[in-house]
Amino acid sequence: MFNKVMDKLNELGIKVQIVEHEPALTTEQADKFIEGIEGVRTKTMFLTNRKKKNFYLVIMDDAKRLDMDKFKGITEEKQIKIASAESLAEKMKLVPGVVSPFGLLNNDDKDIKVYIDKEIITQDRMSFHPNTNEKTIFINTTDLIKYLNSIGYEPKIIEF
What we know:
Blueprint: H1 2-11, E1 17-20, H2 27-33, E2 40-49, E3 55-61, H3 68-75, E4 80-82, H4 85-92, E5 112-117, H5 118-121, E6 125-128, E7 135-140, H6 141-150, E8 156-158
Parallel strand pairs: 2-6, 3-5, 5-8
Antiparallel strand pairs: 1-7, 2-3, 2-4, 6-7
């Protein structure tokens, strides 16, 4: 899965900084492995509506909490919740704890809507797990957008 990410980034000419570390099970633990490295520490959440028909990938600063009611209003859904491990495996072939925009490479249906917090879009770099929790990738924000567009996603920049 990591090789698939690197192949795509290399194909696009995107340079990243990779930090290898022991498996990180929480964002707090992951942050300790990358202390002192420039870039926004992100959290990426995979969400769905009540009927599990619509799927959303939300990228925001890991220190921030998502206001589910506000996001529900943005998406015009009656109910929004964290998608199940089964949905995550089905849609992005990932396990909980490694959700990132790189999992979209595995979304053959291209049916996940991507939202990025306006607060972090102006930052130079962001960090993500590249489909494994044993590495952290730092990618320039402009390159993240380039990557998303190249695989068929037009992220919505919103204020959470």
